[in-house]
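Entry 14. Ran structure prediction on the chain below.
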Amino acid sequence: MTEEETRKPARVVVADDQTVVREGIVMLLGLLPGIEVVGAAGDGREAVALVAELAPDVVLMDLRMPRCDGVEATRRIRAEHPGTQVVVLTTYADDESLFPALRAGARGYLTKDAGGDEIVRAVESVLSGDAGLSPSIQRRLLERLSEPAPSAVAPVEPPDGLTTRETEVLLLIAEGLTNQEIARRLHVSPATVKTHINNLFAKTGLKDRAQAVRYAFGKGLVRPPTG
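Output, structure tokens:
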């Protein structure tokens, strides 16, 4: 009997708030070698509870779910149950989904167009201590790592309760970038950029981009050009 034949199947919990999608993933996993589905959750809170009850090897985690989203559920699982690994399985591959999930402790990240073989490889990879990332996600990470940091960014604490991303948007406004250009630079949608701008304006009392530029200089986030 080979090692592959004697190896115990990976015990997996599936977390997805869409019933049809969740049941489809469970059905697919049931056909895959080396995987045993031991539970299914409709949101992040249920996923955390199932991990506490069942101690699975891996959770396949959707990100956008009610009550407790996938990022928070991942953070709690990794903090409270370090023996369980998390592989994100989501529709979204944008930076604002990918990087928070990885920072929360996810070791794998797949989009829902992944095939069965890709899911099996990701599960096996995270259980062996490697990262289980799809080729497209690996490329995205490499692109992000190779990008030069925005020239205006200063290593200071964001003022007035701004988040790191809102501060980054502010700095790009100070560079003179339009919403479309900021969206391309940050690999997010223009609607997301607009939301960040509305939030930072509300927190700081700013009313337009000109005031935002003066604010960035006044807070020492951007240095005046020299020479």
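The CA atoms of residues 118 and 134 lie 7 Å apart. Will compare against last week's run tomorrow.
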